[in-house]
Fold:
Amino acid sequence: MNLFKISVITICVCRAAECLSQQTVDSVLQLKMVEVTAPRIDNFSSGNKKQTLDSTLLSNYSINNLADVLASQSQIFVKSYGLGSLATTSFRGAGANHTALLWNGFNIQSPMNGLVDMALVPSFFFNNIQLQYGGAGALWGTGAVGGTIYMNNIGLFNKGLSVFANTSAGSFGDNQQQLGFELSKKRFISSIKIFNHGAKNNFPFINTAQFGSPEQRQSNAQLNQYGFLQENYFKITTRQLLTARLWYQYSDRNIPPSMTENTSIAYQKDQSYRATAEWKRTGYKLASIIRTAYFQDNLWYNDSSVNLNDKSKTRVFITEAENRFSITKYDLVNIGVNNTYSKALSDDYIKNPAQNRTALFANYKIHTKNNKWEAVMSARQEMVYTKPVPFTSSIGIVGNIFRYFQLNVNAARHYRLPTFNDLYWAQGGNPNLKPEQGWSEEVGLTYKQSHKKVMWGGNATLFNRNINDWIIWLPNTYGIWTPGNVLKVWSRGLEYKLNVTYEVKKLKVQLSGLYNYVLSTNQASTTPNDPSVGKQLIYVPVQNCQGNIVISYKDVSFMYTQVYTGYRYTTSDNTQYLNPYTIGNINVSTIVSFNSFKIKVYAQLNNIWQEKYQVMAYYAMPQFNYQFGLLLNYNKPNKINTNN
Amino acid sequence: MKTTQFISINAFALIIAFASCKKDTPVVQASSTPALTNGVFVINQGPFQSGTGTISFYNRSNSQVTTDVFQNANNGYVLGNIAQSMAFYNGKGYIVVNNAEKVVVVNGNTLVELATITNLTQPRYFLGINSGKGYISQWNASGAGCIKVINLTTSAIINTIPTGAGAENMLLSGNSVYVACSGGDSNDSVVTVIDATADSVLKNITVGANPGWIQEDANGKIWVLCAGKWNSSYSSLITPGSLVRINPANNTVELSLPFASTTSQPSVLVTNSSKNMLYYIYNGEVYSQSITSSSLNSTAVINRSFYGLGIDPTNNYFYGADAGNYTSNGKVIRYNASGGIVDSFAVGVIPQNFCFK
Structure:
């Protein structure tokens, strides 16, 4: 019987090997050195459940935003206000601002509200996306409460010249163009990816909130977005790598009315500049990483029907340095410092706020001689100006047991600092708010085995999480809405995954099923006999199931995804709720290759069962819709003896 | 490992996975629609952001409460985001929905929808003028306000009367309509007086800062409750609230009683059935005020605050709206005329206004 074992170290090494490929050094040495400068999510997040959306999977979603990808391929609940509209995430029943969104290690959550609009993140910009479930405050600091989304860009050297052009068209006036160019030499890489996306989003829907349930078309939902990602990688020496990236994006979206409103003339413009630079040095005794980032976000919301013209601007500067070394053959130490300076300009605040945070963090990883067990300990102490926030620590253990199984255990403290809106909003901002904080724990069991041409795997994870001092806005005794550290939220549940792969010659069939059971209840209140105590948080589905079928034969691929989202309550005493929905999507593509050219023709058929549903109460969602497109790829490898 | 063992482990795993996909249907409350006479309508704003307002009905004769009476009467059709107020006039009900920007006209006995008035901007209250027309106050854009004149037969908007900013509660006295101009999203300090025949502005009477509530007393005098004005950082009131009396004979302010607090704004002005006592919420309590007194009363009648307050003209009971945590069903607490607690009942999410029938 052809069985195979899994080993944590193998996974780590494989992942690390993707990150950099150095052909000049001896391979054993290379792996050790490379691993040392891999992102912290690879080296120091052991014990948490992780999921990687790899480049193959992402290539099926090249024209989609991150919200679309997560909604159909992860166990995260995506709260969407409609096609192309605001979309936020909820990990394991946590709130929208409890997701840390990291771009190559930099947190891009807004300092104003702690959110990132996932509908504004184009998934084709990234080589892979890793999802870390569970709290990880010691690794990522504020916001990493429910989970972390880690978007990676990876430079692969010596790949030659690559060019791609992608164009798509779809329902409701949707059209998108993408262009990419990359020059990858032995010592440097320079690349750019550009996109332009427009849509009318004037989909028809049955408006059950209006008298007589008329069929209407969504109005005022047009969007126009464009942006680029420019990356440069330069090997100063074989041991030193310099990286610089610039991500610019502009979005102009009209804000459609909810189903109970008649019209809307509101619109929102989002403009982001994100520039980062990183220097890495690997060595036999010490590896160092220094990285810095400047983010600027401009937001402009306009609703002339109420004379509202709201402009805000945020600036964030992040500098981080890490040093890694080993004390023995079996361990790896990481010591780092992070400084984040945030500033906001907005008329909505009492004053224009600024915040300077400095964090010291340390991570320690150790594994047994036979590599079967591994443990990671992390600690982080952050200060806001000179005021310390809760000391944060975590421990994770991964072990290979009973031949086919891998056990992972994690306990981590997490916290979330109050946002600028919570602290300084006029009127009601409360500068005396404490950070939200608590612990999360999980135990997971993964198994993997194969039998002839079939490979089976599965994962079951039990988790528990407490968030204390959860901030909500309520009127005070004078009737003024003000935020307070009110709720204590207890989340617990089970996540289950099963996958089967059958591969014979050029045929590959993959089946996978995901199931979530999440209870996320509030345990505290400021008022006696509050009926919301002990009840499920609003907009957190208790149950969620997904099924995926992928069939590929030679260069033809077919993917079917079905997602079931259970009841979601809309009132905190659980007296009102939204009905469950089931969405079925199909993705098909075929690739034709000749010489250095590849042409991919693809189509996405979404909501094929014509489900009428609402994710958020009274926000219309489209029924059947489609996209189809054409991707042209050209690659010219470097000549063998080329120097640069 | 034997093949059978291998299959059984995985089969077991599959069974667990799919067995756990059971339905978790929430418990549905059954409700039947009662006769909507002799009772109190409670207007619940509904969850902020993406919810719908609802109307609960309290039946005085048997103390029964029915929730969602509008939805039940209209095949599940909902009112929309932020139900603001409701008024009855000539056998019809007028439900003002603020954020959904409409006024739903209903049959006064059944609440079945008859017409919907749209093309409004942040509507607040409805006032019937005569059998032919009614007024709707609205905030409009920030810093503005107006009255939309409605033809009650066709439900069409037939005229627009500009007022001070944030037109709020209205009062018909003689042939004049007095509009408290609350400032809306900004500030104002006037009561706009309108000739109800000509639909034209007669005068803007300067009262205190941000007047929101208006009542007529037994002597025909008009009382206006002004909320006061915040400083730019919203930390204290640069102009505290005030209670102002207008003489409608000459449309001038004849009494102005300023409140002391620079942190608490007074809110909601109601009268008893004989209109010789006024009541309002201030500093976390409900206060009474005799219409003959020339200074503010310092003893409270109810020692707590409410999100909304009403007085039942049939028995002078206070109806206090408790919005709880603002994301779940609220309740209404009833007090007798001397402030003794009578009972309470559950209503919809964020109860605020009452309509006594």
